[in-house]
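Supplementary Methods, section 5.1.

A reviewer requested that the exact input to the structure prediction be made available. We therefore reproduce it here, unchanged from the version used in the analyses.
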Amino acid sequence: MFAEERQKKIQTMIREQGAVTTKKLVDLFGVSVETIRRDLLCMEESGILTRVHGGAVSTGGMKPYYELPRRNLEHSDKKRELSLVAMSFINEGDYIGIDAGSTAVVFAELLKTRFKKLTVVTHSADVFDVLKDTFEVILCGGQYLRSENAFCGALTVETMERLHVQKSFIFPSAISLKFGICDYQQDLYPPQKKLLEICEQAYILADSSKFESQALLKLDDMKPDYCYITDGGLARDLVALYRENGLRVLTKEEGKDL
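The structure derived from this sequence is encoded token-by-token as follows.
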């Protein structure tokens, strides 16, 4: 098979699955690792894909930003599915931090059905409203950001700096091997960063549509000590590639005690 034909097939795989592993391409085409690397380099130079350790991913694009009311209506099944996976990493009596956003609300509603005693730190008014009558909740107030129904600014961050939680659950707008963990809201960026800093273990929750896409602000790199939780819609090749890069990605099938 000529290089041009291989590359057309690789392009189709990238378009359909979002990622390919070098090992899979070597097995599929019966060529050497060096040959596949040359193919991927050529395709990257043409802007077709982005090479990463162990394979390649789609070049991705900017994840569209929508206001909170619209986001609340999108991907509800996926948000519930990934939130159910996350429940298995929470223990009765835990101290946890919860980010703001539409997925955070679904996550909070599930917490009420699964646990009796938790202490929750959040800057989300929505999360506070859902959990205030069930758990101990510390609402980190400050400047009110009406568009996100959440608090931000120096007072919010200063409150978080005085706290420590065992686990933080972050809900970004986009995730990418190349560009990292990203979001759009500049005002919510500092409290999100602080939630990552004050926890012992960070869990990054994003539905499968957010993977290998980009957003305006980079919260952090894709770190191996974070746990990434998504729904079963994430392509298996992409899961394999993330794991090839030392990242722990969990879906319903791989989740603990599910």
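The chain is about 40% helix and 25% strand. These observations are discussed further in the main text.
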